[in-house]
Design a protein that fits this description.
The structure holds 2 protein chains of 2 kinds.
Chain A lengths: L15 E4 L2 E4 L4 E7 L5 H12 L9 E3 L6 E6 L2 E7 L5 H9 L4 E4 L4 E7 L3 H5 L17 E6 L2 E7 L4 E7 L3 H14 L2
Antiparallel strand pairs in A: 1-2, 2-8, 3-6, 3-7, 4-5, 5-6, 8-11, 9-10, 10-11
Chain B lengths: L12 E10 L2 E7 L3 H7 L6 E2 L6 E2 L12 E4 L6 E5 L9 E5 L13 H4 L8 H5 L6 H13 L14 E13 L3 H12 L4 E4 L15 E2 L2 E2 H13 L4 E4 L2 E7 L3 E7 L13 E13 L3 E3 L12 E3 H9 L8 E6 L3 H11 L3 E7 L13 E4 L3 E5 L6 E4 L4 E3 L2 E5 L2 E3 L12 E3 L4 E3 L8 E3 L9 H18 L33 E3 L4 E2 H9 L5 H8 L12 H12 L3 H4 L13 H5 L11 E2 L3 H6 L2 E6 L2 E7 L7 H14 L2 E4 L4 E6 L3 H8 L12 E7 L5 E11 L2 E6 L4 H15 L6 E4 L4 E7 L3 H6 L18 E6 L3 E6 L8 E7 L3 H11 L6 E2 L2 H11 L31 H4 L10 E8 L11 E3 L10 E11 L4 E9 L8 E6 L4 E8 L14
Parallel strand pairs in B: 1-7, 8-9, 8-15, 9-12, 15-28, 17-24, 18-19, 18-24, 19-20, 31-33, 34-44
Antiparallel strand pairs in B: 1-2, 3-4, 5-6, 5-7, 10-11, 13-14, 14-15, 16-25, 21-22, 22-23, 26-27, 29-30, 32-33, 34-40, 35-38, 35-39, 36-37, 37-38, 40-43, 41-42, 42-43, 45-48, 45-50, 46-47, 46-49, 47-48, 49-50
The chains are: A alpha+beta, B alpha+beta.
Amino acid sequence: MPDFTLISAPPLAGYDRSFGDIQLIAPTDLAIVSIALPLGGEDAAKKAIKTAFGIALPEVGMSNVAKDKTSSIMRLAVDQAFVLFPSATPDAEPQIAAKLKGAAYTTDQTDGWCALQISGPGARRALERICPVDLHPNAFAVNAVARTVMEHMGAIVARTGEDTFLLLSASSSAKSFLHAVEVSAQNAT
Amino acid sequence: MSQINRIKGGLIDRSQSLDFTFNGKTMQGHAGDTLASALLANGQVLVGRSFKYHRPRGIFTAGSEEPNALVQLRTGAAQEPNTRATVAELFDGLAATSQNHRGPLGFDMMAVTDLLSPFLSAGFYYKTFMWPKAFWEKLYEPAIRHSAGLGRLSMQEDPDTYDKGFLHCDLLVIGAGPSGLVAALAAARSGARVILADEDFAPGGRLNAETLEVDGMAGADWAAQTVAELASMDNVRLMTRTTIYGAYDHGIYGALERRTDHLPGAGGKPRQILWRIYSKRAVLAAGAIERPIAFGNNDRPGIMLAGAVRTYVNRYGVTPGQRVAVLTNNDDGWRTAADLAAKGVEVRAIIDTRDAPAVCDVPGARHVRGAGVVDTSGRSALKRITLTDGQMIDVDCLAVSGGWNPAVHLTCHQRGRPVWNDDISAFVPGRDLPQGMVVAGAANGQLTLAAALAEGREAANAQVKDLGFTASRKAAPKAEDEAYEGAPKWHIASGKTRAWVDLQNDVTVKDIKQSHQEGFRSVEHLKRYTTTGMATDQGKTSNIPAMAIMAECSGKSIPETGTTIFRPPYTPIPIGALAGRARGTDFRPYRLTPSHEWAKANGATFIEVGNWLRAQWFVKGSEAGWRDSVDREVLNTRQSVGICDVTTLGKIDVQGKDAAEFLNKVYANGFAKLAVGRVRYGIMLREDGICYEDGTTARMGENHFVMTTTTANAVLVFRRMEFARQCLWPDMDVHLISTTDAWAQFAVAGPNARKLLSKIVDDTQDMSNEGFPFMACGEITVCGGTPARLFRISFSGELAYEIAVPARYGNSMIEALVKAGEEFDAAPYGLEALGVMRIEKGHAAGNELDGRITAHNLGMGRMVSSKKDCIGKTLSERPEMNREDAEKMVGFRPVDRSQKLIAGSHFINKGDEANMANDQGWMTSVAYSPSLEHSIGLGFIKSGDTRMGEIVRAVSPVHNIEMEVEIVSAHFIDPEGERLRA
């Protein structure tokens, strides 16, 4: 039994609030691991991803849910993708590394990001106050992903449902990011 | 006062009466009124005083081009000056006051300036207030500003909130007049995503102000029907009360949406929203702006533009006067007379500057051919006009039409120049339009209804076709082209009586002539010399007449004289809207360290470092001043152990088969052979050979490195490395990702650091000096299995480690460290103590790496490896950057140890005069060293490394202080580095 125990306290833990027809929730235990495709080893890496997750690596700017529905992959750049999955323990990177068996480089990104899920008929109305990306259903399909900037903070926006978006931004500025999204929701209702 | 000028008809809702006050007097209007129409309905023609001469002024237009009727709206902190009454929508309880007068509006004491007008002509200030020079700032300028100027700020914080946002569309239609409505409808029917924006609260443009028919129905009804259809379509966003104020690059437009200005209160929502609209294409259908004719005393309340008179009569059911005359140089002015007569208002005369037959029959009106108005009378409201032939007519309203100018403003925002069109004697849009824009309707010089409708449809269809949509085949609605012929007439010779060109800036015909006479002849000089075209209206009604008069003076045509082009914004944008939400603590994002909550609860004072809030020091017990805390933190660390959150340092995960070779190229010193499990200090150069960054990199595995950068350069280093990997060496297998926020990292420093950490680190890790020596690194676990990273590196110069855990455990980790360290009196230390200790140790930081410093200056010249290439190496080898007598970084201490060194002091040799020629170098960092008990400093001085023990003077002319200092080693503490390796 160690003398000291560390307690996990992610910046937006437990956040859950509604603003009219807009729901804002901070997903709990969302693990994020980045995958980098080795130069010259792309095909092997893609094959390993297919084997590990049962789906092909999505195109850049798209995401997809793994075959067993336990994780999803966002392709952010030609050689970079994020795997997102629920995991409460601080071992997300070894989990993914084990699945890929060395075919790609992995880095734990879980604690580097804060996540907010915004949903409801008013979600786009709120996001248009801070998100420069065109989120119209015809322009930003379900599963689309984009890197952007919101209120001076780097962010990732992903459309995870008809009217549902997952937002990721740096964990150190989580409070500012939450404030930005909250004010948008308040102003748009 | 009752609504004595209210007449039948109009688009107002007479079932809704609204109370408002003007200068404290309660009046009534109706829903659908503007403040201007309601004031006119109540017979209030005098609404303000002019800018310079404090002349009585009334309402001149019915739109955003208004130069005269500027009022203050609302009261208290919400008071807003310089608001145009012509676009302020009436609401119940609106409080408006006139501005720019001392004493009551009807008797302005500053009107004396009008009597002094012979002395106050253009250029007066420039010529008069030249001497004595010192008087300008303290006496002249404040006095002039006090007497001139318009409204007053409340000097309180704006109680309203503002927001910003981003919109996207295939086609942006700017203006919801006839051509804009047709354009939006045509585009919407093709399936394109359309935004239709109009500054008015009621879309329709001139259709709401005229009696013209479209598709066999009243124009206003057709507009309402079209708007209803547009509103029902999913692919259309209808934005009323929205001004497109600027056309920017790549089809991006700025828009100001006034959300709650027409309501008594904002209800906690943003008052205005500043939108950035990304459009693929745009149709500019901004309409046209009527221009006046200058003549003697043409500024009296009651003299208005003819089109505005029609607007008040037809849209608002208000007549601006009971006995009206019309002065026109074109057919369009006649419609004002006809519309007034149709509503039963007495039209006494139509004075046409053309010697031509009547355009239409106006019952009861005298037609005066080939004539003009040369003078008017009436102290605070028009009573009489005098014609060129000397006859006088008693009127209380004179409607003036000098023709129409297409509103080309947005076509000019990217330096497009309008071109002159003789047919309508006006500038029309030129060829160089902002990308993706076409112009339709009156804005394009199509001044008649049928032509405007047809062009709106064609423009939209061409635009959507270009985007791949199938254009709607539906024909344009049917309408007639009304008569619009005219002959230019810019001003009427009026003897010595002043004829006003720019009502907002009180610029007269004579001022323009004087400008010409004194050589200020280009339009740009004319503007600056006379101030014509400045201020809130930006010369919307006055620019072209002013240019025409200048053209007359110079005997040139108008296009030869010049064109005016326009910059954003089209109409004024409140500063609050530009600021948006960026106010107070939310002015910009802030970043918190993982141990922020703990620090807050434990006496930390925070300081902003970039966006980070870092603990500067921790107050303990009775410590009264910051030095007490900082000195204690330093001594405590040097004597036992201290803990500091260093998460803000940039962390970059570098992976790939070529990662080692890549780092070897971005660092000036060698990294290729760094062993797994070891850390190395490195410096990075810019391409020009200047050293811009230092930090450490740990090799966690064969192909895996973790780089640490300075806090300030975390993003810059990442960006430069990303550039290097993508553009310089795309053939290398290297992958970068930031992990700055992912790990909570703590420095644990001091002789007891190992003992403390041994209580936290799980037993599987050998913590002995041999098992984990200086510059070792490793993946470990702490507190019973939590993954962590341990680095044995030291910024303080003590036996020290940096330990990192996933950020979620950061707050808990510092608690654990402090608790584990209780037996050693472990204490947290802040940024200030960190700074003191690095100066004591002689480590360079941002103060030293100021963008001018080379490795040679830092005494690290040999670190730029000669065995390999690196970014910046070649240019770092320039002889001038490697001079023997170059400034070298060394330490300094005051000869009189009680003196306090000053950062920024320059070094001068003893006996030399303190000037730049004798400059030997400068002091970069200073601190009080609690370890040495005196002030110490780092700095650069010529050949510093060979001048140990020499005494020079540190001179600070800014503080008017100089003192003798001794050049010493920069390593004030433990120069041999024994503590690090203990």
